[in-house]
Prior knowledge:
Blueprint: E1 3-8, H1 19-26, E2 30-34, H2 45-52, E3 57-59, H3 61-66, H4 70-76, E4 80-85, H5 93-104, E5 108-112, H6 117-125, E6 136-138, H7 149-159, E7 164-168, E8 170-171, E9 176-177, H8 180-194, E10 204-209, E11 217-222, H9 223-226, E12 236-240, H10 246-256
Amino acid sequence: MGELVFVGLGLYDEKDLPLRAVEEVKTADRVFAELYTNLMPALEMPRLEKLLGRHVTVMSRKNLEEERGQQILQEAKKVKVAFLVPGDAMIATTHVDLQIRASKMGIRTRILHGASIISAVVGLTGLQNYKFGRSVTVPFAEDGVKTDTPYEVIMENKKRGEHTLCFLDIKAEERRYMTVKDGLTTLLAIEREKRKNIITDKTLVIGVARAGAPDCCVKADYVKNLLNYNFRNPPHTLVFPGELHFMEAEALVVLADAPRKILEMV
Length: 266
């Protein structure tokens, strides 16, 4: 029986791979990767393959979701397979499903973790990890159809004083990446329908661009100002703070250039 090893690639480029992961992948018989669940701005496949000394077969969304990763599982029944994914290996539910099915087939599975946007946002903003509530994705409106779920999640978290991490939609195979401005525009459109004053021009929000990159950008401000702020290239992420501890407020002022007026929110 073979083995399936899930490997987190990290956030920026192939150098984010831990040394243990590099050594592990070098011993794999087959190496697969998916690059559609997140954008790694500087990852280049030739450099990755040179580092690992292995050919990497890139899987599409169809391979993993519609075909449910059958090619990976069939190989892992016989030999050692490494599966490379952006960020941390088990953040996307697609990967959890693959691990469950592999285990049910009697395939041994292991996880080598990588840097995640979840932990990166905590470090970059200075917000306290245990004060985050449920995370949510702000999706592109396909065919004019939009969902109220992100708005509802932000509202429920705010009621409990919790912060909300908003993943912004990515369509990697179409080269479409939602920006901070796109995400805020989408949420403001829902606010105009709901009218519950959850997200207004005066709501404090944090934008994070290219977490893990040398030119990472973190900016906290009111929605009306952040709509026009130039975060430059993706990937982008949004955070809606809940109730702020005095140290969190100070961190946002110092680390994210937030207006000093937010110190009065504590």
